[in-house]
Amino acid sequence: MGMMSDPLTNDLFPQALLTVTLQGPGDLEGFRRAARGLLAQQILPAQVSWQSAEVPVQSPLTTTPDHSTAASDAPAVQVPPEFVALCESAILHADPRRFGLLYRLLWRLVHEPGLRHDPLDADRVEAQQMAQAVRDEMHAMKAFVRFHSVQDESFRNHPEGGPLHVAWVEPEHHLVEAMAVFFARRFAQMRWAILTPARSAQWDGARLHFGPGVPQADAPLPDAGEKRWLACYERTFAPTRLPGSGLQKALPRRPRRKLPEAGRLHPLVSAAHQRSPRLGTQPATRLARRVAQPRAALAIPAQAPGAPTQLSFDERAATPDALQQLLI
Description:
Strand content: 5-15%
Shape: globular
Number of strands: 9
Oligomer: single chain
Largest sheet: 5 strands, mixed
Helix content: 40-55%
């Protein structure tokens, strides 16, 4: 029997919070199983305390024994397709309230059918903002993570395998596992490691390995090749090609500060403006105007014809793709 789910009764006779501990900060599968079991018992969102372990635990779901429900016994929950995609992104956000917010949204979608037609609902807006922040940072990592080669012990023993390529980044959200899969696909033929203060990932050419975080002071220093690249950047720097406000809009200030050339960019720009005060007022070139024009031919429809209007909350887990298989 589940906990009392009547709001008035719960106010008069408050219940102890049911604690749900997930395997990690981005444990979407554990959250899906837990949320389905809680819904089956009609447990209110306000009666659940969500926690995530910093390191993986033995069980993906830890609850009070009297109120636990196996995921296999809980019925499937029908939700709009966009809610599943929303959970996949928002659950990687750094805000510790994200689990409670997503479960509250799930509860309301089940008990308030009109919610799916209200795009201005406060819970929906907040979850969408979390998901967008995660997607923005994932895009920045794809575009601006910089690797430099290190001759580690494996390279010294087996130089035919190539050096280890290392990158140190400081993501705001929990992106290491998700981004490691992307880089394993992009750089499948080379050994690399991505180090962050909270988590690290390494690709040995065949498998992904995850470990604890690494402070920036302990990360390998740039090699001579990167120093030569920065010197070449300084020599070929063309201030007339600076995108100005366009760069600030496309690349937020936080990831921009982490670029290796960022420390050299400001003095170079200042010197260029001193030489040519009219530099910032020059009109855009014909090529820049042409690139800025929208390309209608590349438009992608929001939803393919014949796509289902409802998805099971755990449907994606039932059909694991290569991304999920690589993480196992």
